[in-house]
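Appendix B, example 12.
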Amino acid sequence: MATPTHLARSSALAVPVADGRPVLGLSTDSMTERDLAAEVARRSTRPVTAFSAAALCGQDDLVQDLCEFSESNGLSIYFHALDLDLCGIDPVDPGMVRQIAEYAKMLGSPWITPDFAMWVLHGETLIENMVPVPVPLTREAVDWVGDRVKHIQDIAQMPVIGENPPYPVLVGDLDILTFMSAVAERADCGLCMDIGHLCILRQQRGEPIERPEDADFPWERVVEAHISGITVRDFGAYPLVQDQHKWPVDEPVWRTTEILMPKMTRLQALIGESEGMSADDLIAKLERMDDCIEAVSR
C-alpha cells in the first residue's frame, strides 16, 4: 500500500476540551427508534443528555429530522458518519467530506466519528449489515491511514475522531491499540474508544482484554467512548466474538469500562449503543453507565 500523495499539511484541528463530568448518552436506530430514545431519556432518573446519530452521505432528510429530534428532546448530538472512509484506497472525495462535515455542523456535533475501517472500493459501498471491512493492522497501513485521516480532517475543517470497529477477522500483527495510537500521532487526531469492540478484538486473538502495553496508549486523546453487549461463539479453531447492541452488556465489558474510565482523562461523552434494545433494559444499562461516570467524577 503506497502512502497517499498531495495531502494537505495544515495545522492540527484542536478537539474541544470540556471541563467536568462526561455526558451520558445513547444510540438507537436513527431512522426508526428515535421515539424509543426520547422515551428512555425522559424516563431515566439519570442525566441522559446525548444521542449518537448515524447517517450516510446524501441522507439530507434524515439529518434534518435528527436536528428536530435533538431540539425537541434536549439531546446534544454526536455524529457517527457511517460511510466516511478513513481506511479505504479510493481517492478521498472532498465534496463528500464537506457534505458530512456540514451534517455535523447542522447537528451541533463537536466532531465527526467514523470507524477505522474500509467502506468503499472502486466507488462501490462495502456496507453489508454494517459489518466493517478490516484494515490491515500493519505499520504500512498506519502511514496510509494516518495521512488519509489528516487529509480528511483538513478538508472537513473540524475534528475527525477515529473509532476502533468490531472487525469480524483480524489481519496484520499489530494490536488494535498500537495501531490507533500510531495513527492518532501521525494524524494528530482524537479517538473514540469502543470498549466492547476492544474486548472483541482481544478475545479473537486469545489475548487478555487488559495488557501491560496499554499503559503507553494515549488515553488523553480519547474524547468519546461507546459500550455495548457482545456474544461469543466457539467454533473450536477460533472464537467468533460479535458486537450485539441489543444485548445487555457482559460483566467483562463492565469491568473493562471501570478500569478504563480513570485513564480517559479527557473523555467528554460515554454512549450506550443500544439499537434493538428494550426501553427497560436500556434504562438499566444507562444507570450502570452513569455509575461508571460518577465513580471518576467525584
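Residues 139-156 form the longest helix (18 residues). Residues 23-295 form a domain with the TIM Barrel fold (CATH 3.20.20.150).
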